[in-house]
Amino acid sequence: MTSIKNYTINDVVQYLNFIGIKVPVSLKKYLHNTAKKEIYVRSHMSINLQNFYCHNFQVTNSMIRYANIDYLENILSWIKKYAKNCLQSYKYSNLSVKINLIKKVNLDLKLTDYLDMILQGIPNFRKKFYKMKKKGFIDLEKYYGKPNEGFSIYISELDSTFISLSFSDDLTVDNLVDLAHELGHAFYNESFKPQYFNLPNIVKSEQYAYENEIRIIKKIDMKSSLKESYCLNYLLQLFLYSAYLSFMLKLMRVQNDIEYVEVVKLFVECFEDYVPLKRKLSSSNIENDLIDSIENNKFDEFNFYYVMARFQVLQNNYAFFKKYVSNL
Ligand SMILES: [Zn+2]
User: Are residues 155 and 203 in the same domain?
Assistant: First the structure.
């Protein structure tokens, strides 16, 4: 994950406090200032169906302005083909066993080994990283109240990045991937010192994060079944984001005069296109899925950033993916 705008120190302190992350001493003196409210709104608002349509309309419109609809549709049709080739040969149960491998397997390495491995390829960044760490900006420890989801926020006033991840002692391959991802964002910030995060910058920052994940997975000495697991995870996420993105685009075309049953139908269609796995699709299941996804803000602009970035990085590393997922 990445930040959607540049944050001031004040914003960051308020935000960290709000989501339950310990504020580093070096930032504590800013605690009493009041923050702008809107930075919380995006991540914590739960949207009801009515303003969901409006929100969705704005988001899809701004995406289309940036990428244009033909380009988006073209990317999505490629992804649909990949999804069909990739997933149709797997039984759902087999696939989930393979996918869960990197979430379960422990490499017998310490966090410092992970960090060394990641920082090795980007020597100029190492110094900056240890500066960030000294300031308490690298928060990797698991504690009560801390969100599981990792993120990195660029604090423009300090030209530094705050990284949050929640690791227990038992480190998995997945943890290594997450660390490489967030450090990829920090490395992007360090390289470009972005003045503001517009759509192209956000997509580029995500690309850096994914490229950094793949760089590590290529480099590290581990069983090929683990590398396959990484690739399948990457692809399945791409397919899921694409299903959501395609749903948003379809909804935008028909909104205003659409019945709820039609919304559900569109939702099912998108899932069947991009995640063609045999799963139980009873109507009550689908409705719950849809409502859950709306309440958890799954239909937001992040689908767009992730699809654009993941697709590009997949193209850049096609031979690597093809090596582990032969039916891609
Ligand atoms: Zn990210």
Answer: yes
